[in-house]
Write a structure and sequence with these properties.
The protein is an alpha/beta fold. Helix content is 45%, strand content 7%. It is built from 20 helices and 5 strands. The chain has a 5-stranded parallel sheet with strand order 3-2-1-4-5, with helices on both faces. Strand 1, helix 1 and strand 2 form a beta-alpha-beta unit. The chain is elongated, with a radius of gyration of 24 Å. GO terms for molecular function: deoxyribodipyrimidine photo-lyase activity; DNA binding; FAD binding. This is Deoxyribodipyrimidine photo-lyase. One of its GO terms (biological process) is nucleobase-containing compound metabolic process. Belongs to the DNA photolyase family.
């Protein structure tokens, strides 16, 4: 006689700490199994795949301590979940709801006599509460942040993560049939990761960042100082709970800038949930102004050979690691749109293919802001990449680290080496592809 089980479908919540789907499944009292289905889309780069693999390996080990096997499938998610549910005689599938509806899966499972139970995760506040304006410029974000922060302060004033694991879970899981206990994790090709995947790595990184929190407001804008938390990949893939991140900062005034970054992250996800058409197309009043991409300039920007050192250093770091501090993301996006005259969609597509922590809402929103397209009118202030280079990397440390051919230049010349070619050897570093003053 088959024993009914509960299947936990892990999605972008690859952890055991503060894991709502895992907690909900435990409350059913049934035997538990885990499932992960590899995303089947072109956005799954080798780097992201390896990050997920590391996260699954860590998750599998943590679940094994409680006797919960983690099965891994590929293919169509609806089919993979339904087939696994049938194989393990699941009475219920529990997963994080993604906001897009799961009607097809629910219908298939109901035919099998299985219930689908979606739980909220990934956001501190549910969407459709705080977005009022169809625009997403700074005034719109400021209004959102006030209401959002007040709701979070009230809701999480005494927050504590549910205890895990329950004391009797491992003993209960010993009743799991032997044919369900075997769950191998297929190997994937290795990739270079400067930010390792997994819940263990996420918790270690969070602990290492917290002592630097008082310096975050200043150092986050200085890429040479490694001032950012680098936790965004863990939030994207769910190896770290956003509620945990909010709670560990406490009520310290040092956390204000960091919580603003969390608010910005949620703002984009709330906004594009409410206005999904804006994700790819932008605001209606700006769509007719979209131009054509200059392929030569775009290639120079992608390869880091524009002749503007901070842009090139940043784009090479992005290509080599899949990571950029957010100050450099804004800088490179503004340069692409305002100096090279590129379409924000083209730049956003390139970042989508490169970033380890790619998240559609944040990527699209920040690119449109960089292009000055967040309000009723085009809001394009003059953009001087040399001045911004001096602000973001005043001593040229970041540039020297990633453009060794310019390492011998002093902090004055390194931001505009074309002005010094008659005096010093720039080792073949290219001249600017465009004159920013002509834009």
């Amino acid at each position: 006689m088959s024993v009914p089980t509960t299947l936990i479908w892990f999605r972008q919540d690859l952890r055991t700490d503060d894991q709502p789907a895992l907690q909900a499944a435990t409350r059913t009292g049934r035997l538990l199994l885990g499932l992960y289905v590899w995303p089947n889309d072109s956005a799954l780069t080798a780097r992201r795949r390896y990050f997920i693999w590391q996260s699954l390996r860590d998750l599998q080990a943590r679940l094994a301590e409680c006797g919960i096997p983690l099965h891994v499938r590929t293919g169509n998610p609806v089919q993979a979940v339904a087939e696994t549910a049938a194989y393990c005689h699941a009475a219920e599938v529990v997963c994080a709801a993604n906001g897009a509806g799961q009607g097809a899966l629910r219908a298939v499972l109901e035919k099998q006599g299985c219930r689908l139970h979606g739980v909220a995760d990934g956001l501190l506040q549910p969407p459709f509460q705080f977005i009022r304006s169809p625009y997403f410029n700074e005034p719109a974000f400021a209004a959102f942040q006030v209401a959002w922060r007040a709701a979070c302060a009230e809701q999480y004033a005494a927050w504590q993560a549910p205890a895990w694991p329950p004391p009797d879970l491992a003993a209960q899981q010993k009743r799991l049939p032997e044919n369900l206990k075997t769950a191998a994790l297929p190997a994937v090709p290795r990739a270079v990761l400067t930010i390792p995947g997994g819940e263990t790595a996420a918790q270690r990184q969070l602990a290492e960042f917290l002592p630097r929190l008082p310096y975050y407001p200043v150092l986050r804008s200085l890429p040479a100082q490694h001032g950012s938390s680098q936790l965004s990949p863990h939030l994207v893939f769910g190896t770290l709970s956003v509620r945990r991140v909010w709670a560990v900062a406490g009520n310290s005034p040092d956390a204000a800038a960091w919580r603003e970054a969390l608010a910005r992250r949620e703002f984009w996800r709330h906004y594009f949930r409410q206005y999904p058409d804006m994700l790819q197309q932008g605001l209606p009043e700006h769509r007719a102004a979209a131009g054509q991409a200059n392929q030569v300039l775009m290639a120079a920007w992608q390869q880091g050979i524009t002749g503007y050192p901070l842009v090139d250093a940043a784009m090479r770091l992005l290509r080599d690691t899949g990571w950029l501090p957010h100050s450099l993301r804004r800088f490179c996006a503004a340069f692409f749109c305002r100096v090279l005259g590129g379409r924000w969609q083209d730049g956003a597509d390139w970042f989508a293919r490169q970033l380890l922590d790619f998240e559609p809402a944040a990527n699209s929103g920040n690119w449109q802001l960089a292009a000055g397209l967040g309000g009723k009118r085009v809001e394009r202030q003059p953009f001087n990449p040399v001045v911004w280079s001096q602000k973001l990397d005043p001593d040229g440390q970041f540039i020297r680290r990633h453009l060794p051919q310019l390492a011998h230049l002093d902090s004055r010349r390194i931001h505009a080496p074309w002005l010094a070619t008659a005096e010093v050897n720039t080792n073949g570093y290219p001249a600017p592809v465009v004159d920013y003053r002509a834009r």
